[in-house]
Amino acid sequence: MTQIIVGENEGIESALRRFKREVSKAGIFPDIRKHRHFETPLQKRKRKAIAKHKQRRSFHN
User: Fold this and answer.
1) Is the pTM of this model over 0.85?
2) CA-to-CA separations, 39 to 21, 30, 32, 36, 48, in angstroms, rounded
């Protein structure tokens, strides 16, 4: 869980900017996108097979 502590004289804009930076460092957005919709086991296998195929293609080039 990402959290920041806002300083006494710190503006909300800078605190929000700092929070967004921490969230992107933690890699939360890709995880949210991944869990946005339910994925059936068949869809999961298909997605992993496509990723594996893409990785192999990029490895050989």
Assistant:
1) no
2) 29, 15, 13, 9, 12
